Amino acid sequence: AQDTEAWRLLSGLADQKGKCTNLCNCQNTRCALFPQGANVSCEQKFHRIVLLRLDDDEPAVLSPESARWRALLSLTELRVLITLQSESRLDIVPPLPNLHTIAALGIPHIPETLPLAWLQLDKRDAGEVDQASAVESLCKFKDLRVLQLGLGLASLPRCFGNLGELLVLDVRGNNFGIGLKRPQDALPVELANLVKLTSFVGFANGAKQVRDTTDCPPKSHQCLPTLDTVRRANLHDDDGDRDEGYEEDYKCPGSAWSADLMQLPIFSWSNLEMFWVDACNLSASPGFFQKAAKAWPKLRTLDLYDNPIGLPAEGLAAFAGHEQLHQVLVQKCELHGVLPGKLFLRSTSLVLLQANQNKHLRVQVPPSCPDESGLLLDSWQVLLDTQDMKESDL
Q1: What is the mean pLDDT of residues 310-325?
Q2: Kind of pairing between the strands at 301-303 and 352-354
Q3: Which one-letter DSSP state was computed for residue 58?
Q4: Is the dihedral of CA 156, 202, 223, 105 positive or negative?
Q5: pLDDT at 238 over 80
Q6: How far apart are the first and last CA of the chain?
Q7: Are 357 and 329 spatial neighbours (Cβ–Cβ below 8 Å)?
Q8: How far is CA 49 from CA 9, 30, 35, 101, 367, in A?
Q9: Fewer CB within 10 A of the end CB, N or C, for the chain?
Q10: DSSP 153
C-alpha cells in the first residue's frame, strides 16, 4: 500500500483519471512499468525503477515540503530523472545514492553527494540573459562527463575549467557575449584545461527567436535570418501556413555571439571530435584553419556555417590528412579564394563538404575526379553554388 501511494503521488494519474489504482494490477500503458505477469513482487517493481520521466501538466513545486518529492526518496535505485516536459518545478534534487543523470528546467539545488555524470539544464525562455554565477554551483561535480546548458547564459564560469573529466560541453542557444566588453570572454581561458573534451556544441548563441511579429526585436531591419530559418521558410507553402510551434531565428547586432575563434581557449582540446558553432556571428583571424587542424587531430565534424569567418578557403587544405574527418560545413562563411583540391582525393575520409553561399569561392577539382563537374564523387557529396560560376571556376 505504501508503494502504491508513492507511485500515485509521482504519476498524478491515479485518483484524477481513475486509470491506475494499483501498481501491480495497472492495465494502463501510461502506468505499467513491467509486463503483466512479471515474476516480481509489487514492492520489487517499485523499488527497481531506474529511470523516471515526469510529464505532468499541473504546475507544482517539487520540494521537500511536497508529498511527491518525499515519494521520490523511495526510489533508491533511480539512476535517471527527467523533468524537462513537466509543469512541476524541481527546486531540490532528492539525495538518491545512484542518481547520475538529471535533465530538468531551471537550476535546482543538487546535493553534492550525488554521483553526477550527465546533467542537462534548460529553461523555457532562454532569451533572458543570465550570468555565469548562476551555474557556479555545478563546479563541485568533478566527475561530470556530459554537461548541457540552455539557460540564456552570457558566459561560463571560470571554475568550469576544473571539470577535468568532461567529454561533452553543449551550450547551444545561450546568450554568449551579451554585456561583455570582450565577446571571447564567454569562454574563460580556464576552459583550456578541458583536455578530455570530445564534443563542443555552441551554435545559435544570441539568436533571437521570433514566433510572431510581437516578438520582433528593436531595429529588426538590421537583423538577418539564420540560414536554417531561410531553409525552413522555403519549405512552407506560399500561403504562409506555419506549423504549430513554428519559430524563426534572427542574428541581430549586439546579440549574436561575435568572438574571434582565434581568441578562444579551444586549441588545447586535443581529443576534440566535434566542433559545432553555426548560426552565430563568429569570425576568425588568419591561420585559424591551420591551427585548428594541428590542434584537433581526431576531428570528425567541423560545423562553422552561417558565420562571417572570412578566410581564404585554401586554409582548409590543412585538414586533408585527417583520418577521421567526415564532414565539413562552411556554407555562408564568406570564404574566398580556391577550395583546395586535396579535399577531393580518394585518400581522404571526407563524406560531406558543404561550401555553398560563398560568393567569392572557386573550386579546384583534381583531374582524377570520376565525373566532369566534381560535385559528386562516389559516396560523398560536395554542395556548391555552381549556377553563378563560370566554367573556368571549376
Answers
A1: 93
A2: unpaired
A3: S
A4: negative
A5: no
A6: 75
A7: no
A8: 15, 15, 14, 14, 61
A9: N
A10: B
CB 206 within 8 A of CB 251: yes
- What are the tens digits of pLDDT across the range 112-156? 999 999 999 998 765 677 899 999 999 999 999 999 999 999 999
Is the whole-model pTM more than 0.85?
A: no
Number of H helices, E strands in the chain: 6, 20
- Confidence band (pLDDT; 50, 70, 90) for 76? confident
User: Count of CB atoms within 10 A of residue 347's CB?
Assistant: 8
Q: Quote the DSSP letter at residue 156.
A: -
Q: DSSP characters for 271-306?
A: T--EEE--SS--B--TTHHHHHHHH-TT--EEE--S
Cα separations (Å) of 117 from 31, 101, 113, 295? 28, 6, 12, 26
Positions of E strands within the chain: 51-53, 60-62, 80-82, 88-90, 101-105, 118-122, 146-150, 168-170, 199-201, 208-210, 224-225, 248-251, 274-276, 301-303, 327-329, 336-339, 352-354, 360-363, 376-377, 380-383
Question: Which residues are within 8 A (CB) of 150 and not within 5 positions of it... i.e. 6 or more apart?
Answer: 121, 122, 123, 126, 171, 172, 173, 174
- Phi, psi at 383, each rounded to 5°: -105, 120
Q: Of the candidates 197, 209, 182, 186, which has an alpha carbon nearest to the alpha carbon of residue 123?
A: 209
Cell numbers 485518483 label which residue? 15
CA distances for 392 relative to 295, 303, 360, 375, angstroms: 35, 29, 14, 15
